[in-house]
Amino acid sequence: MQTVVLGTSGTTPQDVIDVARHGARVELSPEAVEALAAARDIVDALAAKPEPVYGVSTGFGALATRHIGHELRAQLQRNIVRSHAAGMGPRVEREVVRALMFLRLKTVASGHTGVRPEVAQTMADVLNAGITPVVHEYGSLGCSGDLAPLSHCALALMGEGDAEGPDGVVKPAGELLAAAGIAPVELKEKEGLALLNGTDGMLGMLIMALADLDTLYKSADITAALSLEALLGTEKVLEPELHAIRPHPGQAASAANMLAVLKGSGLTGHALAGEAPRVQDAYSVRCAPQVAGAGRDTMAHARLVAERELAAAVDNPVVLPDGTVRSNGNFHGAPVAYVLDFLAIAAADLGSIAERRTDRLLDKNRSHGLPPFLAEDAGVDSGLMIAQYTQAALVSEMKRLAVPASADSIPSSAMQEDHVSMGWSAARKLRTAIGNLNRIIAVELYAATRGVELREGLTPAPASRAAIAALRAAGVEGPGPDRFLAPDLAAADAFVREGKLLAAVEPVTGPLA
Length: 513
Known about the structure:
Blueprint lengths: L2 E4 L6 H10 L2 E4 L1 H18 L25 H12 L3 E4 L2 H15 L8 H12 L3 E2 L2 E3 L8 H11 L4 E3 L5 E3 H7 L11 H6 L3 H31 L9 H5 L4 H14 L20 H4 L1 H23 L7 E2 L5 E2 L7 H29 L22 H17 L21 H31 L8 H12 L12 H12 L2 H10 L4
Parallel strand pairs: 1-2
Antiparallel strand pairs: 3-5, 4-6, 6-7, 8-9
Helix pairs in contact: 1-4, 3-6, 4-5, 4-9, 9-11, 9-13, 9-14, 9-16, 11-13, 13-14, 14-15, 14-16, 15-16, 16-18, 17-19
Subcellular location: Cytoplasm
Main location: cytoplasm
EC number: 4.3.1.3
């Protein structure tokens, strides 16, 4: 099994994916253990002084004015975890919780939080044991961190609350820790606060969203090319010199991908008998690289934000190298929330243009000779009519999900925390949007491959033939009379989501950008 070693300088997106989705083990480097111990010494020294220090010897949030004596400080740290573990609603996905835990450990390992090395080691042990705390959908405002989600994780470290074991069964966390030979932690000064004061949930979901969107944008370039081919469109608008004069990198990459898929096609530019050769295709076909390219450039900006966050230590207060413990506002999720919302907008537009191409394939007045709804016997057969309805419903929901969460602040904590990011909410709706986008692209793939196959006597591009063959081998049937359509659409959805479309095409085209 792969192992990810955490030092003091952050981590990488791939490390997050490996831990969250593939169960990679986590180890603390000697450098991290040393930094943890040094920061803890600073906290212990401050805790021994009579002067109040936020998070060490005071209450929290609007209650920070109360000085807490030594005899109550362990209870203070336990209480913040228990009281903040106030999430409600459905459980969030296991991969999200693992990303959340790993990223909090990443910040702890930086040596800026004052958490003891043994607490950090317990966090790694819980991840490595496959124990996943139960975290709920609602409870984070994305400021002062993802408080409730992280609190549920910290609660499990204390041996309280519920968690999912490596077998997928939910049990009391104390039982799971005991079975794994892990002793529950006894929190000391500042540690409770440090375990729940970060933007780790929204960041983890951003990193996984970027990985999923990377596959989806490449897949969308393929389905756009297949639609262009099925519609007998012209590939000349994809030539690099046209995109060089509007130098957006994403646009050039999408156009190059489509051109690579269409190389060797006998359908592009073909004119039907009695039909004049087309100089221009409809916007949904002709402007595919511009729309998909803008989304790619949005992803590039979001990736930059994610990489900066991965190098950050998000906590309040923080332990600085000069030995001071300072309050700050770095827990505010605005940088992450904005790009999460931005990605939802880009994804909605990509879904919208894909649906327009699908609709064009099904309309006999705009499909340049294809049968109505790609049906075998139109009238007796309805073909893909309702597949487009499903796709349109998904697009409409994506438009609703594109409404920014980060524009909606709401005050909390007796107006002490009077502006929040709503980054967790932005991340949750983006995950839903990505699932919808995958289904939308799957419907376009289903329609476009059928359209290509219905062009009898014309030879598709080699990459198109490879995509069609792989899709049919996956159990998704081609043209023919009406049949129960939902299983075919579900199989096409899985085909795209699992990267099988890319896997079929790239041996022909080379790696797509």
